[in-house]
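Pasting as-is:
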Amino acid sequence: MPAERLLPTTEAEDLLALVREIARDELAPHAAEAEEHERFPRDAFRLLGKTGLLGLPYPEEFGGGGQPYEVYLQALEEVSSAWMSVGVGLSVHVMSGYALATFGTDEQKARWLPDVLGGDLLGGYALSESHAGSDAAALSTRAVRSGGGYTVNGTKAWITHAGVADFYTLMARTSDDGGRGVSCFLAPGRADGLTAAAPERKMGLTGSTTAQLVFDGVHLDEDRLIGAEGDGMRIALSALDSGRLGIAATAVGLAQAALDEAVAYAKTRTQFGRPIIDFQGLEFLLADMAAAVESARATYLSAARRRDRGLPFRRQAAIAKLVCTDAAMKVTTDAVQVLGGAGYTRDFPVERYMREAKVLQIFEGTNQIQRLVIGRELRR
């Protein structure tokens, strides 16, 4: 049963109807096979690009969709309910364009943003390192001034779209002044000296490429610097606030898909001569799953509406990421329980949903980090 949505405009209603059609007809039929064979869905991103979804929340003057986050996130949720690897990839691409769109100069935006939002390119976000995950300010990838620009050396870890992205928003150290020594760059994906390691062998999201990204003497022109030197951590944290809303929306999409599958199964599976949905023990379990999905959706939408109105939303974004991803983990696990032994097999998608849900509690800041963010915001 599709999610019921209260959208702000008729244009948004038409957009979501289109996204739902694409998700149902073009994405969902291919998800299981691609995930089983760990095949990166580049054609799916080309399709999203052609329909304008890769630039949905960015200004129309640069080729974006001009939609508020409230609408973009619900479109993202629909994509994620059909194919989680594509939903996460869409969220990562949108976050990868954030630094340029928000902190770039007019000249930089005019030069690069239309291509970033135009649909032909796919982005990656290169912040994490093997020893600098939750402690992002400890990163060691270094950009040194040379030859009228910068030379970059270092290794990034856990990078979504590593090796397949057309550009990366890169955080690299330009001085030894801790978090104040990090700067932001827009790095081309085919730069000399830039390579990707073998993809990680993951529990879930196997269609989404995740790997180390190695910078070995990569030259970046000076105009590839976004903001001023030392602005990198400020830019990165600002991008993560919005990115966490993206992950919250993908989590709700996954949970909705698991709920839909569980309800459909419970209506057709019979025991003791009755559909199992008629038994109160199962009925209550499904009711709790539905309550978790709808309350999680309300949480991320509340944060998105604050963002759209220009209000502070860092605490609300952290709450949304925490609540929505924990809900996805519980709902997908319960969906496996509803299907019983069948849910533990690959004949049904719920076992894949459960595997995919786990990483949502880890990336874009672990849920323990979200609690730290919320606590710090409360102390202010």
